[in-house]
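Collaboration report, partner site 2.

Our partner group contributed sequences for two proteins of shared interest, and the home lab folded both. The records are reproduced in the order in which they were received, starting with the first partner submission.
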Amino acid sequence: MNLNKVFLIGRLTRDPELRSIPSGQSVASFGLATNRTWTDKAGARQESVEFHNVVVWGRQAETVSQFLTKGALAMVEGRLQTRSWQNKEGQNMKTTEIVAERIQFGPRAANAGAQGGKQGVGAAGGKEDAAADLPTIDIDEGNDIKAEDLPF
């Protein structure tokens, strides 16, 4: 059995570029940065950053282009793919990229108003507006489910 699966959570390094191929299908590409922190043997904190190229196809490409901007947090689920081509000088080139199958957007920035950026919480853009949009679930409203019956 073979498996080619990638899960990444990171921030966009550039705005998505939306294009259409000759058949009319949409494709978007963007960069994603992920980081790793650890403590070395001397006790000093270390950090490394990896940069990934992500490609998204179809309707999802249009959605990504509409709602994500540079710096936005996103989770990408997909597969690795290596492409090769010849550049203008005739040299063979290769690149490995993530072909996204699913993208989940991170939380919207609290200061991104609806008027300026692609992402917006509301006209005021405040925390009160974001909290008002969150549903609350009260398990004591006459339901047959009791809190002590929940397995978690």
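Second partner submission, folded after the first:
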Amino acid sequence: MQAEDRLSEWMGRYQRGDGAVLTELYREVAPGMLNYLYRFVRDRALAEDILQEVFLRIHKVRHTYRPESPAKPWLYAIARYVAIDALRKRGRRREVPYQNGLSSNRSPDALEQTERSESMEQVERAMGGLPGGQREAFVLTKVAGLSVQEASAVLGISEGAVKVRVHRALGAIRGLLGPNGEDENA
């Protein structure tokens, strides 16, 4: 059974009152959704709080899910709206982003991990410089792994508009990172 079919089946069962299936739904969706939310709000703790709120909202509005429709875009649309609400409530104030600590051990693995971490920070900075619509389309398709069709449903725009936003985001990121993938502003 395909992942999307499984999600749709679980949502249908949850909608009909099978509360136990919510655990499976959470296990399947939460990691990717947390990644999406983190890149949306750029604050790890806030993203984790929003994820919890998303599943509370899913519970409250499960009656609106249409079983004949794919579940993933419906779930991510809820996540998007909850994230937007959270940013509004927060007043768009920025806090120090969550940082994974790196080992002080300078073994080759630690050096490689440090280099990867620095590269990811450059990409994160480049993504942070994107206009909101481009960043959202990019994160949904390239980070969260949604199809263009699914991202279109989440964002409420045409598939062509999603493709244009992703293309422009990729161009902007390449422009910010320079020809060798290095941050030109660093």
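Feedback sent to the partner group on the second submission included the following. The radius of gyration is 18 Å. The helical segments are 3-15, 21-41, 44-61, 71-90, 108-128, 132-143, 148-155, 159-177.
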